[in-house]
Amino acid sequence: MTKKLFVKTFGCQMNVYDSARMVDLMRTLGFEETNSPEDADMIIFNTCHIREKASEKIFSELGRFRPLKEERRKQGRDLILVVAGCVVQAESEEFMNRAKFVDIALGPQTYHRLPEMLCRLEQKRKQRIIDVEFPAVAKFDSLPQACSNGVSSFLAIQEGCDRFCSYCVVPYTRGAEYSRSLKEIVAEARQLAETGTKDLMLLGQNVNAWHGEGLDGKPSDLSRLVAAVAEIDGIERIRYVTSYPSDFTDDMIAMHRDIPKVMPYLHLPIQSGSDRILKKMNRRYTRAEYEEIVAKLRAARPDIALSSDFIVGFPEETDEDFEQTMDLVRRVTFAQSYSFKYSARPGTPAAAMKNQVPEDVKTERLERLQALLIEQHAAYNAAFLGKETEILLEENAKKEGFLLGHTPQMQNVIIKAPESVLGQIIRVRIIKTAATTLDGELV
Ligand code: SAH
Ligand code: SF4
Ligand code: F3S
After folding, report:
1. Does residue 228 share a domain with residue 286?
2. How many whole angstroms from 94 Cα to the centroid of ligand 3?
3. How far apart are CA 124 and CA 140, in angstroms?
């Protein structure tokens, strides 16, 4: 009899990828994914530690499953609760103390051992398991083959980070920078293509720091890796996220010009427009260097859509520093973006810095920045009105009878079309635009 698995994922795309791999793994043990926790024999919570709000949300959401577990126990059945991801890695002991009903807690580097943990759990009922090691044998070597779940897939090519931005928990939760081998990546991309993937998002915490040996034995960087992946039949669209500005090279810019499968979209977080704050953040580039990369990219690929991340209210950020960020945004212009209030994270250098910015100042700055960014997103999208573009239809839209797809620039497009065209790349005309979504019609 198949058992049911419910997975809830928080945080970044890497966590989405990890969740998909856990599903692949549990499938080999006879588990099938379900959308309803009430049916589940096992629940996996994949958590994120990046900002305080993200972590706190986990506890409140997790608490909702406690009655479900107790009810199951009364029926003589069990519901196994697994918590995975970065919160566990950062604070496994405290976590297990606060969430006494959790059976297994595992970090991002040990989820390949889940079958073994389940076996241990069966043997010693009631004994809870915590596994947050950084094992020497990479998890990627012991995971089953990846299987596409739709036409768009994530593929982790790099994990961890050596950058140590002063506000960030990722180097602690994900560990040191690790690049998977090109061979392994190409094999996984092929497997995904064979099982239906057309659109591939290459993932890494610092994706453009990827390095390895090319198929020719020579040292290779992201541009050569992407060229190898672009050779795979069936893969039509390639993107990669997240890039670090000072690891962005001219070869990577050239690949946006030379490889048609590389989509005109780049997420390149700047965080702040003030050099003084960038330095305090331990971001190793200046605002001028960032603008130079953008200018070169736009020269190489004029239709490229740029996206970025911003943090407002970093310790010591003055009104003047914040105005620099606003000014940078006005000069560069972004098609998409993510912006956050600085959140002090335990154990990071910035949390101990003097002159933390008051919450109301952060709120006000964030509102002003987001108003400007939303205006830019809307203007960017408005320029597509009446134009034709190609979208890959990825899933059913919320609205009955409509499908959701993405343009090469990663804009959401909703279109009235039969489900039979799901998974196809079709030409559409844009008939309505807003800041986050476009409406299209078949051409
Ligand atoms: N590796 C990626 C992103 C990691 S986290 C990079 O280097 O860009 C995603 C985003 O969360 C970051 O770009 C940053 O904008 C934001 N972020 C990270 N730590 C934060 C913190 N302590 N407070 C507020 N935002 C934070
Ligand atoms: Fe965090 Fe900085 Fe590494 Fe990005 S580059 S994951 S923000 S430490
Ligand atoms: Fe969150 Fe971990 Fe990703 S902290 S953003 S899930 S790397």
Report:
1. yes
2. 18
3. 28
Same-domain check for residues 418 and 329: no
| 164 and 278 together in one domain | yes
Q: Which atom of ligand 2 is nearest to the CA of 205?
A: 6
Name the band, by pLDDT with cuts 50, 70 and 90, for residue 125.
low
Pocket of ligand 2 (CB under 6 A): 161, 163-165, 168, 170-171, 205-206, 244
Q: Tell me the three state secondary structure of residue 388.
A: strand
Pocket of ligand 1 (CB under 6 A): 50-51, 167-168, 170, 205-206, 242, 244, 269, 271, 309, 311, 340, 342-343, 345
User: Where residue 166 sits, what CATH number does that domain have?
Assistant: 3.80.30.20
Ligand with minimal distance to 53 CA: 1
pLDDT number for residue 126: 63
Residue closest by Cα to atom 1 of ligand 3 = 48
Mean pLDDT of all residues belonging to the chain:
95
Distance CA 90, CA 4 (A): 29
SS3 194: helix
Q: What is the CATH number of the domain that holds 14?
A: 3.40.50.12160
Does ligand 3 lie within 6 Å of residue 11's CB atom?
yes
Tokens of 160: 């961890």
Contact 210, 221 (CB under 8 A): yes
Instruction: Record the tokens describing residue 53, joined without a space.
Output: 């709000």
Same domain for 376 and 417, yes or no, is: no
Residue 426 sits in the same domain as residue 339: no
Protein residue with its CA nearest to atom 24 in ligand 1:
342
**113: domain range?**
3-131
Instruction: Determine the distance separating the centroid of ligand 1 and the alpha carbon of 441, expressed in angstroms.
Output: 36
In this prediction, residue 136 has a pLDDT band, given cuts at 50, 70 and 90, of: low
| pLDDT (mean) for 268-277 | 98
Give the pTM: 0.96
Q: Return the SS3 of 298.
A: helix
